[in-house]
Structures are given as C-alpha cells and as structure tokens.
C-alpha cells in the first residue's frame, strides 16, 4: 500500500514547491496535484509529487490522524509505510 504524506507548502516556483513535513523541508513536484496550491496550503505528497491539496477544513484532522498513526502504531504496516514515505523525502530517520 502506498500513502500520501501531508505537508505544508512553504514556497511555490512554477511546478515545484518547497514543502515541510514534520520539520523536514523537501522539494516536490506539482504536475499532478488536483488544484493550484499556494504557500500555507497543505498537500499530500507521494514519492515527490503533490497528489492532492488538503482542504482547509480537513487539515487539523488529517495531521492529527498521521501524528496518532506515527506515535501509536509501532510495528503497524501502515505506520511503517508513512514513516518510509517521510524518510524517503528526508535526510534522516523519523523520530
């Protein structure tokens, strides 16, 4: 199973955005995202591509779900997938 990882858009330059994931900033592509994004928006990232802009009304709930998943699902395959996505787009392991 592959999951998107939520992150906050810091900067947009054409079809590339700087996005922050739990304190890690990475460049991702905007070629396939479902609608335009701007700094301050949240997107789901999958293998370096924003695949969906997260509606403002869903941001808090989405982030809370991922935080819970990462914190309490030790050994869970879905949590491992999320950690893998974050680590693949970062320079070090996820705490």
Succession of helices and strands = EEEEEHH
What's the number of domains? 1
Regions with little confidence, pLDDT below 50 for 5+ residues: 91-95
The fraction of residues assigned to DSSP E strands is 25-35%
Kindly, what is the distance between the CA atoms of the first and last residues, rounded to a whole number of angstroms?
22 Å
CATH class: Mainly Beta
CATH architecture: Roll
What is the average of the pLDDT values?
82
Biggest beta sheet attributes: 5 strands, antiparallel
Radius of gyration: 13 Å
Beta strands, count? 5
What's the short version?
The chain is of the alpha+beta class and 95 residues long. It is built from two helices and five strands.
How is this structure best described in words?
The C terminus is likely disordered. The relative contact order is 0.22. This protein is 27% helix and 34% strand. It is globular and about 40 Å long. The chain is built from 2 helices and 5 strands, in the order βββββαα. The chain has one domain: SH3 type barrels (Roll). It has a 5-stranded antiparallel sheet with strand order 3-2-1-4-5. It is of the alpha+beta class and 95 residues long.
Question: Which SSEs are present, and which pair or pack?
Answer:
Blueprint: E1 5-13, E2 16-21, E3 24-29, E4 42-46, E5 49-54, H1 59-72, H2 77-88
Antiparallel strand pairs: 1-2, 1-4, 2-3, 4-5
Properties at a glance:
single chain; disordered C terminus; SH3 type barrels; 5-stranded antiparallel beta sheet; globular; alpha+beta; 95 residues
């Amino acid at each position: 199973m592959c999951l998107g990882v939520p992150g906050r858009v810091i900067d947009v330059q054409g079809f590339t955005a700087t996005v922050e994931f739990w304190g890690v900033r990475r460049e991702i592509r905007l070629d396939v995202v479902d609608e335009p994004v701007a700094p301050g928006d949240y997107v789901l990232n999958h293998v370096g591509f924003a695949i969906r802009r997260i509606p403002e009304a869903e941001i808090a709930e989405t982030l809370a779900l991922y935080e819970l998943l990462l914190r309490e699902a030790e050994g869970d395959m879905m949590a491992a997938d999320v950690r893998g996505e974050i680590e693949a787009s970062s320079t070090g392991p996820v705490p």
